[in-house]
Specification:
Number of strands: 9
Helix content: 10-25%
Number of helices: 1
CATH class: Mainly Beta
CATH topology: Lipoxygenase-1
Largest sheet: 5 strands, antiparallel
Structural class: mainly beta
Order of helices and strands: HEEEEEEEEE
Distance between the termini: 10 Å
């Protein structure tokens, strides 16, 4: 529970950072791919997540899904929290391609995972587990 509270606070900090971008600086959007899979091959894991992409059409999404799962979006920033609802860990991968080059690529495995990337503030992607 403490880990999820910490992760929620971290997501709020990231969301706040998205709003501080300068209007005159127009970085290129990144093509994000987020993949979620079971850490135990061949098994399906139910998970929930809160996902935020900084783009014109993507509000904060709260989802409950089963693995395998993939989500794609064009955005200036990405932030998400994932939590396994079973006894099996999940594996989350974040990839970002900008101007034809890989900007970020990170993977983590655990029961709860937080990830983020912020093109606007030129912060590299990160991913961590709890």
């Amino acid at each position: 529970m403490k880990a999820m509270l910490l992760a929620t606070a971290l997501l709020c900090v990231l969301v706040g950072g998205f709003a501080q971008a300068a209007d005159d600086a127009r970085p290129l959007p990144t093509s994000y791919v987020i993949r979620v899979a079971s850490a135990m091959p061949g098994t399906e894991v139910k998970f929930d997540a809160a996902i935020l992409f900084r783009s014109s059409e993507a509000p904060l999404q709260r989802i409950t899904r089963k693995t395998p799962f993939e989500l794609r979006s064009e955005a200036l920033a990405a932030s998400a929290m994932f939590r396994s609802l079973g006894s099996t860990d999940i594996r989350v991968e974040l990839r970002g391609i900008q101007d034809g080059k890989e900007r970020t690529s990170s993977t983590a495995t655990g029961r709860a995972i937080v990830l983020g990337d912020n093109v606007v503030q030129n912060e590299s992607g990160f991913i961590t587990n709890f």
